[in-house]
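The material for today's practical consists of a large collection of protein records. There is nothing in a record beyond a sequence line and a structure line. As an example, a complete record with its sequence and its C-alpha cells follows:
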Amino acid sequence: MTGTTKEPSDSEKIRNLIHTVEAGTVFKSYRHLCKHFEIKPTGGNAKKAVIAELDRCCTLKDKGNKIIIIEVFELSQPKISERFLNSKYYSKCSYLLLTFLAEQYCYEEDDEVYYLTTNRILKIISLCNDNYTKTKLNLAMEDSESTFFISEVRRYLGNFTNKILKSISSNKLLNFNKCYMLIGKNNKHRIATDEETKIINDYYKVILEEYGIKNKQAINLSRHAKEIYSKFEEHLGYKHYISNRFNLTADLANGAEYLRKAANLPDNCGSVVNSLVCNDIYNLVFNGIVNIRKDEPKPFDIQRAINNFTGDSFKKEIDEMIEEMKKEHLSKGTVVPPVKYRWGFNSDDDIVNYRIESLIDTFIRVDGDSGGGI
C-alpha cells in the first residue's frame, strides 16, 4: 500500500518561498506572482486569500497591474480571526494600543517590558479622559443618577478593557499578564514578587469574606473602599494596585500597521470608537434607570391607596395603630429593619438625559481626538 503526499496549501507555499523575494521585488501581474510562488492563479475569494497571506509576510504596494514588495518581515504576522476583525470595537481599540506602545516604548535592540493600569489604557484607546483617570468619578456622586452612572460605567469599562486585552493576546498581537504593583516609602513603584503576590491574594480572600464582597473589582464600588485599602496598607506595609504587564517586541509597529490594513481601519478610528462607546454607555445607564424606576415602588403609593379606599376616620385609626406599634417595639429595644434601598431616580426623562449626557461629556468623551488618546 503506497501513501500519498498531501499538496501544500497556498499559505504554506508562500511561507516556504517568501525568502526568495526582497524589498524591491516586482511582479508584473498577479499571474506572475502566482507563478513565482507555485500557486494556481484563480480569482475571487481565492485571490483575496493569497494576497492576505502575502500581507502577513511582507508589505505590498499595488501599482496598476504590478505588485511591488516593499518590506519582508522577519516573522510572518499572525492570522487574525474574522470575528475579531469584524468587531466594531476590538480591532480599533487594539490598533490604538499597539500604536501607542510601538511609538512610545518599543526599541530595536532588546525586548522591553512595560506596565499600564486599566485607567491608562482606557485613555490610550480613546474611552475616557483625565477627569476619569484622576478622580475615578468621585466628583460625580451628587445624585442618584450620577451614583448609578458611576457603578455601571466602572463595570462596563473594566470588562471592556479585559476583553480587548484578551482579544489582542488570543490573536497573537501582543503578550500581557496581570500583576500587582507596590508603592514604596519613596513613592517608587515596583512589581510584586511571587511571595508578595501570594500574601496579597490571601488577604483579599479575608477581606472579601469579612465585608461580604463578591470580587476584587467590586471593592471600588463598596462604601467601605477607603477603609479596606487602609487595612491593606496596614497589614502589608505598602500600597498596591493592579496593572497589566506587556512584553514589547521590535516588530510591534509592523503588527499595528498590519492590523490597521487587515481591519480596514480609518485614520480617525479613535473618534469612531469613542462615539460608539458613548452611545453604549448612554443606553446602558438610561435603560437601567428606566427599568429600576419602573419596578421601584413610589413613596406615596401606600398613602394614596389608604386615601382612596378608606374614610377619614379609618385612616386616623390606622395612623394611631402604627404609632402605638412603633412605641411598643422601641420600648422593648426592638431594632426596626431598614427599608430596602431605593434609588429615587428623577421621574423626568429630560432631567435624567441631561445628567447622563453631562457625565459622559465630563468623564468619557475625548472630543477631537483622532486616535491614541495620548
Observations:
- Residues 232 and 239 are 7 Å apart (CA to CA).
- The chain is about 55% helix and 10% strand.
- Confidence is low (pLDDT under 50) at residues 368-374.
- The longest strand covers residues 239-248.
